[in-house]
Amino acid sequence: MEKTILFPKAGGFIHGGDYNPEQWLDRPDILKEDIRMMKKAGINCATLGVFSWSFYEPKEGEYHFDWLQHIMDDMYENGIYTILATPSGARPAWLDATYPEAMRVNRQGVRNHHGLRHNHCMSSPAFRRKTAEIDRRLAERFGSHPGLLLYHISNELGGECYCPLCVQRFRQYLDDTFDHDIEKLNHAWWTAFWSHRYDSFDQIEPPFADGEGSIMGLNLEWKRFTTWNMTDFLKSEIRVLKEITPDIPVTTNFMTLYNGLDYRKMAKELDIISWDSYPKFHNDEETLFDTMADNAFHHTIMRSMKKDKPFMLMESAPGLVNWHPCNKVKRPGVHKLACLQAAACGSDTVQYFQWRKGRGSFEQYHGAVVDHLGTDDTRIFRETAQVGELLKKIAPAAGTRVKARTALLFDWDNRWAIQDAKALSQQTKAYEETCMAIWKEFLKLGVEMDILPSDADFTDYDLLIAPMLYLLQPQTASCLKAFVQRGGQLVATYFTGYVDKDQLCYLGGFPGDGLSDLFGIISEEIDTLYPSDSNKIRFTPEYASMEWQVKDYAEILRVRDAEILAAYTSDFYQGTPAVTRKQYGKGKAYYIAARTAPAQMRPLFTQMLTDAGITPQNLPEGVEYHTRTGEEGNYAFYLNYAPTPTQIENIYGTDLLTDTPLNGSLTLEAHGTAVIRLPQQ
Amino acid sequence: MEKTILFPKAGGFIHGGDYNPEQWLDRPDILKEDIRMMKKAGINCATLGVFSWSFYEPKEGEYHFDWLQHIMDDMYENGIYTILATPSGARPAWLDATYPEAMRVNRQGVRNHHGLRHNHCMSSPAFRRKTAEIDRRLAERFGSHPGLLLYHISNELGGECYCPLCVQRFRQYLDDTFDHDIEKLNHAWWTAFWSHRYDSFDQIEPPFADGEGSIMGLNLEWKRFTTWNMTDFLKSEIRVLKEITPDIPVTTNFMTLYNGLDYRKMAKELDIISWDSYPKFHNDEETLFDTMADNAFHHTIMRSMKKDKPFMLMESAPGLVNWHPCNKVKRPGVHKLACLQAAACGSDTVQYFQWRKGRGSFEQYHGAVVDHLGTDDTRIFRETAQVGELLKKIAPAAGTRVKARTALLFDWDNRWAIQDAKALSQQTKAYEETCMAIWKEFLKLGVEMDILPSDADFTDYDLLIAPMLYLLQPQTASCLKAFVQRGGQLVATYFTGYVDKDQLCYLGGFPGDGLSDLFGIISEEIDTLYPSDSNKIRFTPEYASMEWQVKDYAEILRVRDAEILAAYTSDFYQGTPAVTRKQYGKGKAYYIAARTAPAQMRPLFTQMLTDAGITPQNLPEGVEYHTRTGEEGNYAFYLNYAPTPTQIENIYGTDLLTDTPLNGSLTLEAHGTAVIRLPQQ
Amino acid sequence: MEKTILFPKAGGFIHGGDYNPEQWLDRPDILKEDIRMMKKAGINCATLGVFSWSFYEPKEGEYHFDWLQHIMDDMYENGIYTILATPSGARPAWLDATYPEAMRVNRQGVRNHHGLRHNHCMSSPAFRRKTAEIDRRLAERFGSHPGLLLYHISNELGGECYCPLCVQRFRQYLDDTFDHDIEKLNHAWWTAFWSHRYDSFDQIEPPFADGEGSIMGLNLEWKRFTTWNMTDFLKSEIRVLKEITPDIPVTTNFMTLYNGLDYRKMAKELDIISWDSYPKFHNDEETLFDTMADNAFHHTIMRSMKKDKPFMLMESAPGLVNWHPCNKVKRPGVHKLACLQAAACGSDTVQYFQWRKGRGSFEQYHGAVVDHLGTDDTRIFRETAQVGELLKKIAPAAGTRVKARTALLFDWDNRWAIQDAKALSQQTKAYEETCMAIWKEFLKLGVEMDILPSDADFTDYDLLIAPMLYLLQPQTASCLKAFVQRGGQLVATYFTGYVDKDQLCYLGGFPGDGLSDLFGIISEEIDTLYPSDSNKIRFTPEYASMEWQVKDYAEILRVRDAEILAAYTSDFYQGTPAVTRKQYGKGKAYYIAARTAPAQMRPLFTQMLTDAGITPQNLPEGVEYHTRTGEEGNYAFYLNYAPTPTQIENIYGTDLLTDTPLNGSLTLEAHGTAVIRLPQQ
């Protein structure tokens, strides 16, 4: 696999973060000290201009870019590159005063006042015009600066708008989506129910708080439209920049599994994927491994959006954040763990929000490399500088990539449909948690697992897990059949294949669209358990030792032509099938009819991996493992989240962090890490 | 007692449900299959047109009724009758677009958008005109159809509207109610408090969210007005239908104890009472008996609204529903229990929402006889068909009625007043729960107990329970006195007789309006207990074994001329009277000063029944019992909710379900039922 | 110390309460009975007119004062004085109808409807004009009445208004506050963050619900402005009254620590401080002592606002209230305890809301001396009359004052800043609770402790506790330094000196503004603990026995030149300093870096008291103690909240309640009290 270095002129890993010099323009002493300390911390890049519009253009049409020129020049002269943000993430007060349409209207139909951040209408022509203008000027002035690496479009795009302009665009979007045929929409949305038929697209409104909330199809199309409109806005910014500087890549920073936007649609418009990672370190609900495993899931979904190159960790907190329910400080050594995890998962950058704490306003206590104290002798600064050194040591791994032969399907459309489904229990649907819990079992097995949309290309994979695939996209059923046909191992669960892309229930038996052929079963009923209810699944002698606890959901199956692996042990459906397997072509299709604890399912997963020809790692508890692969070498990352030392055997190669050869055994200290250049095979 | 068959041409029991063929007009195969399966399931009636307006009148003034004609004809030819709904429960999109005044304004003063269901202004002249027009056309077209049994007005009427038209009507209503004298209102509402006097009726507004909420009288009159206005709307629909087809009876479907409307006021306008029953089967808070006892309470309040004829179970779920917090499937056999309970309580129909699940929208997962699978070999279909057969077997009981000599008083006015009372603890008032818990003890004793408003005629009764009768209607006190005077047994409790119909406190001692004479006590203080507080009531030797736990409320009494049956055992009112009895005329008036567990009160209830000449049944735990009475025979119903078999002795007659004679002993299986035609006496 | 009798013509203690005869003008029998019963209960004053506007002026410009004249005359003839309220606390309906601007606009930007109480715009010229007019007429008519003691301005002023007039005034206020320099505001509010710079004061809006909420400086100035504007309204009422009757003192009634207004700013405009006390008696979370200790805290903060004279207990409930979550009746004897506590803390009045329960509306069940029963033979009436007698017995203590040499700093500005700080955990900041818990330890020690703002004069004090002094007013740091310099004992804690008055963080190390010199430490990090986290503080051998539990917060310190008294026992900062002390001038400055239980801190407090030359009392558990001091004698109050008797030694003097001499030992019964005239020293 060829290496892909994201920014050849900067080389290796990027170590940087958001930098807001505009807050300190009256303090040249501090700006000078910033450069000195960045160099000391091994910072080779800073992100500028994220919220600088009111400094670029303090009054409409009056532009000031010189201050930024000085900062970029100074940085560049000191070996620090620039990521330049477009400033559309927050608007100057004059802009909202002059163009009130730029302010969003909320679900209650009330236009916001000026303020906060995520508060712009994505449709507003005036705001798009003003944004294009400032973007154009930035690109013209700084597009050829030798320090410039990347454009960072806006900031953490999110939210939705119910203004008249957006309502109008929504109607147009629907008109296009349903081929200008209102009866097509009526059928897709099943509006005959409750007499909700529309005569024309002009009668349709978004799901206002005091309006229509009972049409599943409307709710889902509104989500899709919001992604479409946000992406359209994103494209409008990218277009201006690319016209002037087509060679400068663009990104925007994503936020884990943010529910409001289907990131995969937006990803198509970006050159590089980047995201912001803020785990709740040391919380009192879970182990550090569990916290970081969720973070690895997020790294992985980002990586899976563009498999041909590394991604970027655009933001993370050097110390703590200020907006968690409980803002505990990161324990010593944990910052290093988190930074190396990013690299292990395929990121080529470690970046922070923020370089220096501001004196006031909302994020004055958000962690930063430099505290209000202002010195370089703090614990946080020292740990940051240590990361700077580590990143230099592992530089050979930059540009390599993580490769997986297994994948988990996770869909925004499916997620929205499940959330909105008027069924089951609203409290225990837990689609995201279910996906993450299963994925985490493969992480513990040391098996790399991509996270894909259900309409992805499955060619590269040998094993697929599709939890709760409630909504089927048009081609998904046939692609899954083809996947198994050619030898793949597939797992589906309860609540699979109930509805089509418009959320119309399949007739003739779930899972629909032909999947009941693939699995050889029909689900006749789904039982929703109360928290105090319990049941079990007992396996046939083939899996003699297994008994799984059932909670939340249990489907009652009719088996057509599948092998029954296990049955329920109690309730009125005692003895009926709970886990089935069907040989289909060269592969196998498993159906797990009830919600069970993924840890109990591990023996089944292990067998499926064996059938797929994949060998799990034998990892100590609390250790995360990944390998980055490149033409010139492969690099194994070991991260020990446990508070005790541990040992791993059968490892050979060289630990880049210590420059020590390994002869079969690796000792990891408590919170210890290793990055092993593996012997060429 | 003469039998009253509700629909002689259909005969016996009605077995039916909501049917929405308009969702399947493009699928004649499905419509045909519906008829076949209805017959197979023993369905003899379907409810049509509940949400069909946009099919009747897809554009304003353009009417399409032929499709309904075909359905009704087909059904009739196959022995299936029609209940025809008026379509005002949901409006076409064009109607709201053309007449925005038809959409409701909420408590925040904001007009709703188009959507949902319960969203029409009851005052809107435009909406009334459009409703009258469509109703008129329906009656003209289908009023003489041989399959038509009943009109079903709108659907689950509910909610309130704060639009300018409703505000204006409210003022007019108050002007009439208070004899056009604003000072009469000022006195009744005690507006001298907080300087809230009104100069004129035009200054009065409903209790808007950001408006006046501190005048109890205003709050109560707004509730009364909403009932009045909803009833006026109901009457406006009935009027049109009766003009054209005076002989077709009308109903509307009630929803258990729905808080927003005083159903007894609406009941006066209806020919038949019907309601929708959706118990939370198999929840994790209570036994199945408890769940069903609540349901029996609801059946009974419906039955008590029109004692001269059977009522209708208009809706129930064949399987599960989709809107409970946890939508667990009904266990085998429980559907039968629920359906026979309806019959046992006096319903002559068992009807479902819905016949067939739609493919999309809000209720796509609401239980139905026919699932998305579409076949007649499902568990739910089989259980439904079984109910169809049972209803045929018990046909002789149709038209008979349940007769009670005891009654419990439950009032909407009193309920609203208690809810709004700024006293006690807002968390533990529990008026409804208190009434239901006491009523349930009589159910366990097998003693039939009607549920009446406090202004009812008590002539037919020998024992009355009046829990928490906080608000006294003008004649209630004197009627209760007369009841006891002539030999009745009466129980009142803490929080009785504090206020008059306007919620003005009685002066001179609670319970007011002369009730302190009847009971021989005055309540000086009422103590509200914290959850961790406890007290007890200990009885005099006459009731040697009794000690009741006190929770939530304890009144401190002064006894004037009553017998003291029991006293508190602790706190500063230790030793003061807690339960008293006064012989008054030929009867007895009991006062229970504190909240206690009804199960502990059973010995007292038993003695009162003895004094009233009523013999309780000796029922095994978990068994519900009722008798339906008719000139031609009496029918005893036994319903065993327990998961174990049980036996009942001293029963003679014939079990209609099995056509087996009983010679003194009846065995009920787990979830077993029996309907015994009793020997003529 | 000279005595200051508040109302010489009434003499001694005032015993009274709110009286609403306008509710009973049609019942002269009741009005007559009121006078008779007031005299029987020892009532010597009643508060009139609090909500009488619609009786004074039933239509605009039509005035009726005769009814009040009759009441005041009758009362005066019977020895009952009048406190006369201005009626602005609630407006007649016609006023809102005619001048809608008088109604407040809420945070959502929606104007309230007429109704409730706290619902007037403080800026409205129309409302100010109408208020001035009615106040003027009242003063002219009743200002020279011989029975008049005091004006009571409005009622429980509170709330805020977002109407256009208030927005305009807010801008003007900011313009003045920031010297007409928008850049000064931009710097103070750190608006460079998120590009939030303002070009002009006209762009600024209050923190609307859908508006700007992320600028800490804006949020704080809005709070300050609301106090300023409310005080301005208060002054506008006082001005009118003082013009006509300059010698009648004025007050307004405060509500414990009401969060919305900085009472200390308003106090400056008042002649006498008064407040409303409604403890949650007998709740299930705490002991009666704890409930009453919180109440003592509130008494003390009121007393500390005007140290040169007694304050007034303007409202309290004779029995129960009706608006607590659980409205339990006060146990026998507890009313006496609460009334004597007020006197012990420095109040010269015991007043009630309300004399007689109204028949209807929001407070019909609020406790009153006279119940709906209407007689004087109730428990509540008897206990009230007993208080009347006690107040006569302790009359010699009237006019004396409570003197303290220790003080606790509690600031509204600091409180608002802490509440709004985006840091720590939003759930556990608990500034008020922390202050109260520490203060309570000194109450248990029998050491009188004033409660002061941080910009107070510290001259009179020897020991200061400044918990969580997060925001430093401009002179506070230097005043604290001066205080310690001259020999004071000072305690500060974690979260001290982070921000200046605009909430800009100090650079160069916390605590800022020079306080790190005073304490000899810098706080490098603050750790927020999860509820399940724990740590401890272990002291050096000097305090061998002490070990404190740490919860919620722990700062990690760098010690510059302080003595380390104690260190953390675990976590990564194990062994680092947790409690320090620095000798500074003649005094000592303690820094306690973590949140700990005040009860564990008592040995440290005791030592500091010793160093300050103050001797704690040796009080039994559950006993509260205060001494009132006057030229003619000192009076010690003992209040036993325990349900068991107790004994106190070394007491000499005369118990005024029993007129018994004490020879060294005082026995207090369960809930017993004593007021001892101490021997002259």
Automatic annotation (TrEMBL), chains A, B, C:
Q: Which residues form the Glycoside hydrolase family 42 N-terminal domain?
A: 18-394
Protein name, as recorded:
Beta-galactosidase
Species of the source: Eisenbergiella tayi
Catalysed reactions listed for this entry = Hydrolysis of terminal non-reducing beta-D-galactose residues in beta-D-galactosides
What family does the Swiss-Prot or TrEMBL record give for this protein?
Belongs to the glycosyl hydrolase 42 family.
Q: Which GO terms describe its biological process?
A: galactose metabolic process
Statement: the UniProt record of this protein carries the keyword Metal-binding? yes
Task: List, from the UniProt record, the residues annotated as the active site of this protein.
Answer: E156, E315
Any idea which positions bind substrate? Answer: R117, N155, W323
The Beta-galactosidase C-terminal domain covers 622-678
Which Pfam families does the entry link to? Answer: Glyco_hydro_42, Glyco_hydro_42C, Glyco_hydro_42M
Q: Which residues bind Zn(2+)?
A: C121, C161, C163, C166
Q: What is its EC number?
A: 3.2.1.23
What are the record keywords, sorted?
Glycosidase, Hydrolase, Metal-binding, Zinc
GO annotations of cellular component type: beta-galactosidase complex
Q: Which residues form the Beta-galactosidase trimerisation domain?
A: 404-614
Enumerate the SUPFAM superfamilies for this protein.
(Trans)glycosidases, Class I glutamine amidotransferase-like
Q: Which GO terms describe its molecular function?
A: beta-galactosidase activity; metal ion binding
EC main class here is hydrolase
